[in-house]
TrEMBL record, chains A, B:
InterPro entries: Acyl-CoA_Synth/Transferase, CoA-bd, NAD(P)-bd_dom_sf, Succ_CoA_lig_flav_dom, Succinyl-CoA_synth-like. It holds the Pfam family Succ_CoA_lig. This is CoA-binding domain-containing protein. It comes from the Bacteria. Residues 11-106 form the CoA-binding domain. SUPFAM superfamilies: NAD(P)-binding Rossmann-fold domains (SSF51735), Succinyl-CoA synthetase domains (SSF52210). GO terms for molecular function: ATP binding; ligase activity. Keywords: ATP-binding, Ligase, Nucleotide-binding. The keyword Nucleotide-binding applies. Signal peptide: none annotated.
């Protein structure tokens, strides 16, 4: 490993960027990189370098790096591999300290490429340049609106730092994250890592004030000891979540032919994660789920979960994975049960999970959640079946009015006016009876309460409750699936899971991290 | 169990339906049930029964069942529990053979309800009435457009039959299925199952010509032996997929308080599933994934998988779960490798998974998939990173043009005209160079090939290939996630998975079923 001092602040907050190989040709790296930087809102200086053009994307094209008079904080290289070494020599002369090399055909393609990469890192090491890549998809930095990436992904700004040993996978996971409403602080696709180690970036993110949660996609480690030390320093302050590839023999084979990394024995790595308090994600989907969970929710004190469910089946589906995730169905104290007796129909189950048995009174949902969240017997709350999805009312309104109406016209034409009269009569009756109580819980919806059912009302309440009780509340958006769940999360400080099982999984990981923190503090 | 002959054909294809408790009040079961039937397109006769109304939803209201002159194939009951027994007596007199009882507060709420339910089933058994429920969310039947359910879910018509011991969960999973493009033939929410066993429905679906795939959500079995026998008869002809709830002690507790079922020892049930060739789904999400997989794809001959991936990281993520799912990364014969040598850049990995190393020539993707699918060494094909999602082009176009344009106006106003000139120049050059070959694979996109990138082209090709080779091809819609994946599946005979790991999972379950079939045929 090189001995020079890295200047990561210039990498993540460059005041000027030179793009060697800048191009007007659509689809070329040399065109996608600057377009994405402009599209991402980067406001520093951009210098295009291309000896065969006068102008690139509206900026004057320079014949070489030397021709640029000003200081360059970050070099982006998008030219064929065999030419990159010479450019790096020019960069050393110019005193550049950071380079993102997106060019491929280096060590990943055999002996010739390995030679080129060796020369590249020798030059960079001697000249004190940190190379991201080669064969990288680039980096992202929220603090300078820097989308220095080969794909048009403009992440939401937030607190999740992401280091990925696969650039492509990393960028696509950021795309998932964006749709899930997860905000990112930094991203690094480490590529071939010519003269870096992911630990370099891990250490930087550990100290980075805008990064509060760190996620990692790892194929192999160069220096396990150093990784462990760095992780141990960080995890007491920030959660670190890792997806380790190369689990079985077939996965290890794929890793080898992908980045040439030796995946190593997975059992060893898992032991290291446990020791360092790193939270393990088992799949790509889970890595994104956990990024959302840990960046939005407070860490619980223990593993006892209170569950509220509208629909008993969901409660069962959730409870079914409690054992596997190391969670405990909280035993509700008598005081909580008495509290719930006041709110729920007399035939409620009087135990956890709390099935609210079809109770559609919104105020009652909040009472149940408050009772669970405020109980000392509960560390984590999961709420299911009550978040409806952004378009639920509109969709349902259309379904329950338009479709029957159309079919009345098609199949019962002569009854149409009477149908409309009936609907009107029913609605008027519902309004006039809105204050009646309904002891058997089987009666219609109170129209005056409909606005309480908006998701925004529910989410505000959850946020407020989390602030008061300092306990994580996980909502499950079972009506609408992931897409709708996501639309709510955007900067809202909540986590909505797409399924009950994924909610329980997230709760289990929170509890695991809580256990690590409390054992660490002893 | 009752000894009378069930008349399920009348249940699933009723020519006339009477709704007792029919109501105009929005949100009431008595209003939602007929509205959903009308909305679903049911064209048989509807009779509303409500002594306190003259007219319900445009139909004349009858004071009682007796007042209806015509024959009733199906009775729907939506009145308080204590009144249901009397109605059932009237139904016996009227010669009705099937009833869907949505009323709750029966055996699920204690001794009083259990008494009511006992009386109900005695009457029904003596009178030869099959009761779906009580405490059910209803049934669906594609052959008669019958959405006899308590929620406005109008499933796509298709070949998946679904029996669920939780109505709420079942209906919401159908909602997921609908968004995933899965077509259903029948649905039964069995509720308290007063005088039925889920095996009754399972046997019916086993013989049902429009049902090709059966999915089950099971909390507990009344008669394990009978279930096993029925399943063993069906699975050689139709795949049966089951999600069994009540796995650990905490899940069993939740089952008990939900439907009062004894979940039983899960290990026993799993043994039974293995013996009967039932495919196990471990989560609600997987039940839906597998319904999609088995209803869309042919059963493979073995477990050897050929993987094509655009983006090496996805290949690793997939390979990583091969061991767990009992799959084998197919060893590519020399002939296939030579075939691929002609298509892929010279530095390709020359092994499976086939990373197409950033090759964006659409025709090449098809060549690779053809080579994999036609090889005798491959039983299943997984294709990743190549299905873009319905709005991909529009979104990408907006991202790569509009956002940079806006930011040029905001931050580099004076360069705007030059920027536009550059873009134009680049595009014209790309068009003029479209026929140039690009040996290093780093060059721009060929604009004339853009239309080949439409998902519809890809899907047609996959379908054609599956028809020719009779092997399942699973596509992963990693760019867009589940929502977009779904939009493609609608009646298209393909299965798109939301993540690489979920694709591998589906492939593993296909291979498991294939193994069962081949051992069964021996």
């Amino acid at each position: 490993m090189p001995s020079f001092e890295r200047e990561f602040d210039k990498l993540f907050n460059p005041r000027s960027i030179a793009i060697v190989g800048a191009s007007n040709l659509p689809g070329k790296w040399g065109s996608m990189m600057p377009l994405n930087m402009i599209g991402g809102g980067y406001r520093g200086k951009l210098f295009m370098v291309n000896p065969r053009e006068k102008m690139v994307l509206g900026f004057p094209a320079h014949a070489s790096l030397k021709e640029i008079d000003e200081e360059i904080d970050l070099l982006v290289v998008a030219i064929p591999a065999r030419k990159v070494g010479d450019i790096m020599e020019e960069a050393v002369e110019k005193g550049i300290k950071n380079a993102v090399v997106v060019s491929s055909n280096f060590a990943e393609v055999g002996e010739e490429g390995t030679q080129l990469e060796r020369r590249l890192s020798e030059i960079a090491n001697a000249g004190g340049i940190t190379i991201v890549g080669p064969n990288t998809m680039g980096i992202y930095s929220a603090s300078s609106d820097l989308c220095c990436m080969g794909a048009p992904v403009y992440p939401l700004k937030g607190s999740v730092g992401f280091i990925s040993q696969s650039g492509n996978l990393g960028i696509q996971l950021m795309g998932w994250g964006q749709r899930r409403g997860i905000g990112f602080s930094r991203f690094v696709g480490s590529g071939n890592a010519a003269n870096t180690d992911i630990v370099d970036f891990l250490e930087y993110l550990g100290d980075d004030p805008i990064t509060k949660t760190i996620i990692l996609y790892i194929e192999g480690l160069k220096d396990g000891r150093r990784f462990l030390d760095a992780a141990c320093r960080i995890t007491p302050n920030k959660p670190v979540i890792a997806l380790k590839a190369g689990k079985g023999s077939q996965g290890q084979g794929a890793v080898l032919s992908h980045t040439g990394s030796l995946a190593g024995e997975f059992a060893l790595f898992r032991g290291m994660m446990e020791q360092a308090g790193i939270v393990e994600a088992e799949t790509t989907e889970e890595l994104v789920d956990l990024a959302a969970t840990f960046s939005a929710l407070p860490v619980p004190k223990g593993n006892r979960v209170g569950v509220m469910t509208l629909g008993g089946g969901w409660g069962v589906a959730a409870a079914d994975v409690f054992d596997r995730e190391g969670l405990e169905m909280a035993t509700l104290p008598e005081s909580v049960i008495e509290e719930l007796d006041k709110t729920l129909p007399k035939f409620w189950s009087r135990r956890n999970p709390v099935d609210i048995v079809g109770n559609v009174n919104r105020a009652n949902h909040f009472k149940v959640l408050n009772a669970l969240a405020s109980s000392d017997a509960v560390d984590i709350v999961i709420s299911m079946g009550t978040l409806l999805g952004r378009n639920f009312w509109i969709e349902n309104m259309l379904k329950t009015t338009i479709r029957p109406l159309i079919n009345m016209i098609r199949f019962h034409t002569t009854r149409l006016p009477l149908f409309q009269l009936s609907i009107l009569k029913g609605f008027r009756e519902a309004v006039s009876r809105r204050s009646e109580s309904n002891p058997e819980g089987s009666g219609g919806i109170n129209p005056s309460e409909a606005l309480q059912w908006r998701d925004s009302v529910f989410i505000s309440h959850m946020r407020e409750l989390m602030r008061e009780e300092k306990k994580p509340i996980i909502t499950v958006a079972v009506n609408e699936g992931e897409r709708s769940a996501s639309s709510h999360m955007r900067n809202s400080g909540i986590f909505t899971a797409a399924t009950p099982e994924r909610a329980v999984r997230a709760a289990g990981k929170l509890a695991t991290y809580a256990r690590f923190l409390s054992s660490h503090r002893k």
